[in-house]
Structures are given as structure tokens and as C-alpha cells.
Amino acid sequence: MLPATVLSIQDMEPATVVILAIAAFLLAITGLSIYTSFGPPSKELSDPFEDHED
Questions:
Q1: ∠ CA(25), CA(27), CA(33), 5° rounding?
Q2: pLDDT reported for residue 1
Q3: Cα–Cα distance between 15 and 6 in angstroms, integer?
Q4: Distance, first Cα to last Cα, the chain
Q5: Is 26 exposed, middle or buried (0-12, 13-18, 19+ CB in 10 A)?
Q6: Number of neighbouring beta carbons within 10 Å of residue 36
């Protein structure tokens, strides 16, 4: 039986850890933006063009 290999931060290169942290941050910001734009909070958003029609 083979031992299970577990990824550990101590075994990674520092550049890999930085890239993964940046990717996780960008993914979280993108997810939050999509949720805010199209999810339940979007009901509270107002359209400035619709508010100031001539």
C-alpha cells in the first residue's frame, strides 16, 4: 500500500505559495463581484441612468 501524499506549504517554493495566494484572492473578489451583481444583493442596486432620465 502506498502512503498518502499530502501537499504542505513547507514543501512548496515561495513563488508557488505567492501565486496560489494571489489566485485565491482574485477568485474570491470575482466570486463576490458576481454574487453582488446577480445574486440577492442586486435587488438593492440602483441604475443611475434610469434614475436620471430626461
A1: 105
A2: 56
A3: 19
A4: 75
A5: exposed
A6: 13
* Span 6-53, pLDDT tens digits: 777 778 888 999 999 999 999 999 999 999 888 888 888 777 777 776
Cα separations (Å) of 44 from 1, 3, 4? 56, 52, 48
Write down the pLDDT at residue 43.
82
Question: At 17, which helix (H) or strand (E)?
Answer: helix 14-38
Instruction: Work out whether the CA dihedral 27, 28, 31, 33 comes out positive or negative.
Output: negative
**pTM value surpassing 0.70:** no
